[in-house]
Please model this.
Amino acid sequence: MIPLSFEFFPPNTPVGEQRLREVREQLAVWAPQFYSVTYGAGGATRAKTESTVLEIAAAGCTVAPHLSCVGANRDGISELLEGWRARGIDRIVALRGDLPSGMVQGGEFRYAADLVAFVRERFGSWFHIEVAAYPEMHPQARNAEADLSAFVAKMNAGANSAITQFFYNADAYFAFVDAARARGVQAPIVPGVMPIQAYFKVARFAESCGAEIPRWIARRMEAYGDDVASVRAFGLDVVSTMCERLLAGGAPALHFYTLNQADLCAQVLSRLSSAPSSAPRASALAP
Model:
């Protein structure tokens, strides 16, 4: 079975909460290794994140809260992580996060590597720490080399594994993995996958996070216009084919950005479960 994880965002309404429970039940049939839950900039969704995390944990599932260090201090981070540890939560996704509008001070942690180092210093090996990776470069990075160096710093600080930003160009993932391996990173680098629900939504996300939609995909999507069914069908083909290639090339797992929806993730996984296996590309494999 393919090692999997699914990302959720904390719902804002009781209806959203019930819908997420249904989505989680639908995705549970794929036996994910964990569910991750996002955390708003500057802790904007902290209460909602905690509620969602605790509900998933209470259901007996492994959950990985996102932990943003923007605007945070060591005492606050320690208190939060002590609470997670007391509840048996032992996996986190450590991120720098983005400064909320109007905020000029980033808190006591300047980079995600600083947060990772602090968690290791304070909590030892209790937490499995995931960090972010950007195959097509973080939008705020000076250049690709600086971005790679920042990633290597996070791994050297004590991260266990990484999850990439979503992308639609498998070559970008493989090139990033090769570059990281050349810099001594041996930990798993898991590709992040975002099924295409609607072109305008994916295009907006891609613009904000620095992901690139290949021109041929963009042109096909634009040509479909308001034909939602055709966009979804084409997007399903694109994402399924990319995932097949990633797994054949040695990707150690897949992490799905679900947008709190199960249907397209399940369709992609159904296709993958019946796809013929291929010989792995050794350089992308985790040792």
